[in-house]
Every structure is written in C-alpha cells, then in structure tokens.
Request: fold
Amino acid sequence: MLFEEVKELFTNHNILFQDHKLRRQSEPLSFFQAICHAVSGSTRKERFKTDAAKNYVLKTLDFLLENGLINEEMIREIFHEEKAVKQFVLHAFTSISSKAEFRILKHCNKLTEHWYWPYLNKFYQVLGQEEKDIMDLTFYEGRFSSKGEYELKLNYIFVGDPHSFPLEKYFHQLKNLDKSNHLNSHGTKNNHSGHLQSSDYEGSEKEMEEIIKQLIYEGCCNIHFVNTGEYETYLADAINLFSFMENKMYPGIIKKLLNIPEFLNIMHKYLGLSEKYENPEELFQLIKCWSQIRTSQEMASHYEKMSRSNKIELKNVSWKKDIYDGYLNQISQALHQSAEIYDSISKRKNEVLSSIKCPLKDIYENAPRVLTKMKNVHFQESK
Reply:
C-alpha cells in the first residue's frame, strides 16, 4: 500500500497542491515548464517547491528498497509506465544538471551512460537493460519532440500532450528485438535478416510507418528553421533517436527515414549541398560521427573540469582517468569512421566533400588537434 501511494505521489505530484494555501503560492510545473525553468537560469519565487517534494519521495523509494520492504522487480515495473518514466527521466536529468553542473548538451549521449549516473538514487542501480533502454528512448524522443521550441537556444526534454506520440505503445519492441536476437544466437531460424518472424516483421513495419508519420511527416509541418544551429539540433536529435531505434527496436527504420523527402531536404540544407547526393545514408552517418566528436569533446572537458571541483555534491564521486580516456577513444573512433566515409564519398562524387559547409565539419577538421591537446591534460584522478 505504501509503495503504491509513493508511486502515485511521484507520478501525480500535483496532488501536493490541492491544499488551497499551497496552491496560492505556486502552481505545479508541467514536464515542459520544469525543463525550461531548469535550463533558462531564471528564478521563480515560491515557498513550496515540487522538486524538493519529489526528492523526498524518491528517497522514500530508496528506503523501502534498502530495507526489503519492496523488491527490485517492483522498482523495474514502474519503468514500464510512460507517465512514471517521464518523471524519472526529468528527475535524473535535473539531478545531473544541478549536482554535476551539467547544462544539457546540444548533442547528447544516452542519459543512462552519463558519468554521474552511478551516483543517482540507489533504485536506479537495480534497473535492468530493458528499463535503461526505456529511459533512454524517452529521453531521446523528448529531446526530438522539442524541435519547434528553439527560442531558448538550448535543447531540452519536452513532453507535451501525452496523446501526441504514444511512446509507451512501442516499449514492447525493446523486449521483442532482444528476444528475437537471443533466439537467433541459439540457432533458431528467423526471418528479415535474422531478426524477426514474418508476423512480427509485418507488425514492426506498420509501427515504423506510424513512428515516421508522427515524428517526421507531421512534425515537419510545424517547424520553421531560422538558422544553421536549428538545423543542426534537429538533425542531431533525429539521428540519436532513430539510430537508437535502429539498434534496439526497429532494424531498417533509418532506411525508411532516408526515403522521406522532407528529412532529406533538411539534411542537405544543413550540409550546404544544393544537389541531392545519391547515397544519403553516408551523409547520415557522417553527421552522426561529427556529432559524436562534439559530444565526446564536451563530455571529456566537463568530466576533467569536475574532477577538480570542490562541490559537496561531488564528494563521493570516484574520479577515474579511464572514463576520461573513454571519451577520447570515442573521438578517435568517430574520426576513423569519418575518414572511411570520406573515402567512400570521394570515390562516388569527390566534389560533394568540398561543397559541404557546416559547423560540425569545422569541429571535425579541428578534432585531431583538439584530441592531441586533450591527451596532454593532467587528469585529477581520485586516490
């Protein structure tokens, strides 16, 4: 009973404002408003803070788990409910933002792979891979759905009308693809390149079409870019989201995405290409590599900076150079992959490379020099 009440309090925390006096002090923030409030740097006068209440609720979850009053499976079940997951994603992000001084990146890796993830609430550490995947999917989709709201000059998580994109409807595919891959690894014959049986494949095809229709076709009708940075943010978020879906849920969805003229136009405009390139997947992968370079550069620099911080919130963090070096390895790998794509494009149509002009290309061209400099940084490792 207590567990259900805690869960209800967390997912529907506006009941905290049913008291007339509290409601006069401050209305509860929506998911979107809370993220905007967190990244804008603005202050809001209020006597009763929902974030503080939410943190106490989550500490209660930790207490129940640590004392055996609830088990790990009960925790995992919560992460299969979209409404709850959105709140957990918001909490994890805002905790990382405040405790690790981490303003959300324009380009971002998985939320669950951030270096501060192990230092969040204890119940996060009992999540299985499926629950982590659900969190990352929710995070990526939330970022992409913010594409029409660029006035803050920062990207952020956005979840508006819960009926606009039924995210929970697709959670099952994270389990289905993993199961089919597991069966295939044990010699069971599957169709569609070894991933899915024919009935599952037909259902996946329909779901992929639904996803692209809602996120791309309908989304492009409501977006108006005014500068190169907005194209870049849109593409980085799209590439992160659809690459995640390709690897974890829907093999082949990137190919379908690259058949959409509206998306291809955005990609070519950002790269400064006036003519359509015959193999758009190479352009897609090139932007993905360049985005990874930028992300890893920012993550490495931030991690190195935080290793020298005296913030009390970081006193229990164990600083390891191998984490810092891991970001540098990601840069090296992305540079290598970019070089391979460059070689392939040059063989097809060499003039395409000289025509590409965008900020990410500049970052790519400077990356070898920056990487050398980063390797010479003295990292403040924990003893």
